[in-house]
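Notes on consecutive records. When two proteins share a document, each keeps its own sequence and its own token line. Never mix them. Below: protein one.
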Amino acid sequence: MSELRDAKRFLFGRPQDFLRVPKARLQPILARQGKPTIDLDELRELLSPFAEVLPVIVVQSPEHWCHSVRDLPADIDAILPVSIPAYPTEVWNSHPQPLVERGLPVIFWPLMAYDEPDFWRWSARDFLRALGVEVYIARNARHGEAIVRSLAVKRFLTTANIVVFGEQNFPWNATAAGHLMTRSLGPMILVEPLVEIRSRMSRFTDQQVRQVWSQRQGRYAVGNVHPEALDEAVRVYLAIRDILDGHKACAFGVNCFGDLVIRGGRDVPCLAQCLLREDGFIAACDGDFCAILSMILITGLLDKPTMMSNMYPIRYVGALNDHFGDPLSPDSKRYPQSSWNNLARLAHCGFVGVISPEMTPKGKATLRDWGGTYEIKRDGRGCGIDADLTPDMPITIVEMCFDGRTILLASARVCETTRHPNMPHCESSALLEFRNLEGFVESISREHTAVVYGDHIDELRTLAEVLKLNCRVF
């Protein structure tokens, strides 16, 4: 279980530059000539996978400090003030105005020999924050790394593009509300019709389709999906990738239930989601741009695989019965009714959701005909993804809200993946146990929740602080 909990996302080759979170650029500034309290070479090595620590600037005078800060390049993400030794009489206290004018975040790194915060910075933090400077005191190396990674994600978001396909007729209406996410976090959300995908599908030859599948098929088991539906699914992948490349977009979603399948189409993008994730893109169901942003934050910060699905609290017996024709109640012997207030299921279009193979216990996802819904019957066409989540696995639930300013985080655990015999529209669902489902539901944005293995509340809370989001934890 620990291997899957800590596993990074699977990538088929090196992602294109516009898909990769850039390294953060940090400028250390030494208060005066002498031995610094931080080993900058050790710090440079520690942060090298995701940040560049530039050569240190040694302050020669207050005037030199002022010019150095004001003249820093535009691509610097944060300043690292370094002391000699830890006394509170540094130049940033006597001459704070350059920090105010420059507007760059300031990070006071922890004492590396002890991996604890430098508490001499408490007063400097409050002083500088009162003047309008963004200041962080890293509690330990892990917290410091989360701050730095978050700054890199913040820069990535400012140039990110997202494409959602299909009519905008769900509450995640990008035409009406996408600008709220752009205003808060920066990414542009573009809306394209389904015809943009379908008009491209015939451009790809049978040989190109076979080549893609021969390269990728090792991570998938072919179930009862028809050969022509599998070919169609690969063509959908190639067409969407072509569009995303044209827009230099890092993520996408298709409004299946509100446009594609209700009009009789079965060229669903389930396999396309998995294949494009392997290329470095982010993909979510139903064109839900809030779920897409949630998944971008997860993967950008943690480099871990993520999935999303509909979340149903099992205590809502009537609503579940109306939606599935069955309440999907768990085994009462294993899960007594007294525990149901914190239990919920994940299910979407016949299966748990579009789960990438690296999140499954066996490392493979099964391709089956699209599973349908209670309202839209399964007809044997299409190519869906049938896969299990890993049992007894701690997870973190993430929901960006429509306002673009609020993020919800919840701790939970995957109990099991349940198979539902004689329910073709819901062959499988995942049973989750939340720490505080009732509190989460009171503040919930949508039924769509993004899921990542492991307990990442602290890192994601740090990301929320850097992005200036209102973070609520359950």
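Protein two starts on the next line and is unrelated to protein one.
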Amino acid sequence: MKNICKILAVVMLLTLFIGCSQETPEEFDMDFSKTEGNSFDLEGIELLYRSNLDSGNGAIDLSENYLGYVMDTEFSDLAMQRVRELEDTYNFTLNVTTDKADIVSMTAGGLNFADIFLSPSFNFFSWSKAGVLTGISKLSDYIDYKDSKKWGSPLLLESMFYKDDVFGLTPNAWPEQNFTSFGYPLVANVDLITENGASDPRELVDEGLWTWDRFTEELEKNTIREGNEVRCYGLCGGNSAYMIQMLMHSNGIHLVERNDNGELICGYFDDRAIKAFEMSREISIGKYKHTYVPDLSSSEAIIESFINEEGTYAFLPTHFIFGVYGAVSMNLDNFAILPTPMGPDVDSYIYSSVHHTMYYAISFPTTGNSEAAAFVANKIYEPLPGYETHEDIKEYMSRNFFFDERDADVFFKLLENSHYNYDYTTGFDIRRIPENINNATKTVAAILEEQSSVVEQCFTEYVEVALSAYDVLFGK
């Protein structure tokens, strides 16, 4: 916490509503006055912590949770212990609710939606635009948004940028809180690959041989026919956007780039991206389509196909690998997490991924007591006991989820270099190109041309507006 001395000098009248249904606010004289020792007295204030983690798309639905953790688990117990200790130390009460409510309508009605809000960041752009969230930089006396170890790097916060501020943070120091927020690592069923007589992909990565060309060779090797039936395919696919975005990154290009003049441009139109589009088409509808499980139209279908061993490789959202919906870790033992094979325009692996939300994001609604809430949140989200360092968390993940330590290394590199893809901010308009690229009736050039005006509009109305905050907060 920066400039904590300012807390001692601040005496303020703030509005705090004790219950969500309360129509008239109670007024509190808030005095962060110093008491004995090194503690601060919050004078019995009650803060409302609302946790609404139902993403609406099956990624996560924790209708009952404690600060984002499944009830009656090690981490929910540690979180409860942390809150009890802080309540005793700083003389406040944290009321935790998982009741569903609409932040915009409640705030417009002058009701206290929450002092601290935990939710996915899908709607942060529109919420920030509507003025219902407090800019974190305004709370910098109490919480340091630049502490990336604790709150996430600028890359992980990008879905919460708007104009000149960041309006949310992700609890980056707490185990499991952002591990399910990104995609789409290439996952391999190594036991099935061995059974098929194909190469161990981890060894190919170690030897520097994991390229696009070698990947298609391995898809061929792992496509096993028995008579007229295919017993095993090379790749469980179906969502072209998953594979294309990762292939783009592996060839050194992202959705959002800057040109030599510092202007924001769309990477889709770069030659490196076009090669990724063409590779995707070769695998799904072209030369290698016989290696590709056909007719998988949903993420759930891809997962079911993969865990049923219909195919050996799959590009997957991480919420289907670990966590509440982690079918892969629940059903398979020796699965590998791999970097996307190296593209033709780079000479080393690029450990990079994408995300369309941070499933665990905290914010401070404008009708709440933002200063006190930021002070308390900063204390709550210190590392949990036993998990104080990145290595502690990595060891925990390796012990409980990964078959090989190399998988953990890849996983964390992909997480730390995850780029926002603007799917939800733009209403999925920005995703039309990768979604349609495997349309066999149109050329890549035709798809790019017909969507160019949509992309330009998305960059003007959303991407440039969001990334202006990056320059203000972190510099170019």
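For the record: The CA atoms of residues 251 and 345 lie 6 Å apart.
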